[in-house]
Amino acid sequence: MCLAESGGPGRLPATVRPVTDVVWLGAAELVRLYRGGELSPVEVAQVHLRRLEQLEPVLNAFMAVDAEGALRQADESAGRWRRGEPAGPLDGVPVTVKDLVAMRGWPTRLGSATSDPEAVAHEDAPAVGRLRESGAVILGKTTTPEFGWKGITDGPLFGITRNPWNPAHTPGGSSGGAAASLAAGIGAVAFGTDGGGSLRIPGSYSGLVGFKPSFGRVPDHPQEGLWCTLVAGGPLARSVADAALFLSVIARPDPRDWYALPFDGRDWRIGPGDGVRGLRIGYTDTLGHARVEGEVAAVVRAAAGLLEELGARVEPVGPLIEALRPQFEHHWKAGFAARLRGVAADRHHQLDPGFHALATEGLDVDLATVNVAQSARARLGAQLNAFHERYDLLLTPTMPSVAPLAEVVYHSPGFDRWARFVPFTLPFNLTGQPAASVPVGVSREGLPIGAQVVAARHREDLVLRGARALEAAVDLRHPHPRLLNTLRELGA
Questions:
Q1: Is 206 in the active site?
Q2: Among 198, 204, 239, 248, which one carries the catalytic annotation?
Q3: Low-confidence spans in the chain with pLDDT less than 70
Q4: How confident is the model over 61-83, as pLDDT tens digits?
Q5: Is 0.70 surpassed by the pTM of this model?
Q6: Catalytic entry in 77, 112, 134, 174
Q7: What is the structure's pLDDT at 226?
Q8: Which residues pair with 233 in a beta bridge?
Q9: 466 within 8 A of 26, measured Cβ to Cβ
Q10: 115 belongs to the catalytic site
Q11: For residue 97, what is the enclosing H or E element?
Q12: How far apart are CA 121 and CA 114, in angstroms?
């Protein structure tokens, strides 16, 4: 166990990084340097693209790279900064977009060999449109498992995406390419989606802030099927401040999303530093009767103690909900089956075998069974609403363990995907609550450990406060020395 690389909770001195080491500069810091004329968006884009080219053979994190477009966007940004007319708060900041998300002029491969590489999108998804309007420099589209179906990132289309902390391990999924590239210093922030933990899982496994907003906070389009009300788009970032900045940009309104929350114009950068003094926080390492590895539980328990030292009232709350699998397995398979129905039968052999097996089982799920799961979902939401009448925040481990090996077979008799991957994350997709994973430690074997901060629906402000307090209290440097050692071994 290692919190702040000291074996327990503690602080490290702030790292002083030279301005020339631009790959580790966050979005807010880049904008400050652009404004002062100390750095150019073109220089930053060039450095990130060189790093991408250098590390991509090992990480395998990109479905597509738009070097020409990124340099053009960076040049346009540099012109705006010279004139003192930035387009928005991300002008010139290099970002990436997960390849489940439509980006004008590029195919949306969905991680699937059954997708058409020639079928380019004719319009941007809402979040991509907001990024362009803000002047962000889009480096490319990052890998995702087929249709985003699992918590690791691999598939027949592109192979295996690897974790820069240790390439033998997975960065998580389904926003795995986004996490692997960002953790390695490629891009300053990444846009991903989360339908069962797909921002928080790779956040925990890759030492990043993975922030799933409330359902409807970030407009989405197109939307279809059972899954759409589970999915929220959001940031992977190297700091809570950058996650808040990114959310302020992508949460702007878009009329194509009928589910979207009313836009309130909030700047989410205001408030995360307000601390947790006086907040009521429930802590559990079991939640839905989950089984957590001892090292992970100890690190997160120590993080809970840090919040208590900061003035929060932290109480153990034990198991809060029933195990998810009995109620939602059929619901999940039915969603997979909906995807399968859209794939021509003569191309089924090209699908990920695990996805195909579960989707085929889902073809037999009837409407009555889905309705039972929907009723269970409503009960879960009411139960957690009642919890938040008593507590402002819930703190849990994000994952039951550190990242498994990259070659793990996700759907197999010896690997329980429900127990190993989603016991702490999926409940809050079902209820639509905001939740974030924050790095709070590094295991003995040198892999990150994350804690999850959860608030009631529409209370992203409380999640950001709790996440920022943890970040400051643990003071876990990024890039962490263990990560830097690996990257040096890779020649970066």
A1: no
A2: 198
A3: 1-20
A4: 999 999 999 999 999 999 999 99
A5: yes
A6: 174
A7: 73
A8: 193
A9: no
A10: no
A11: strand 94-98
A12: 16
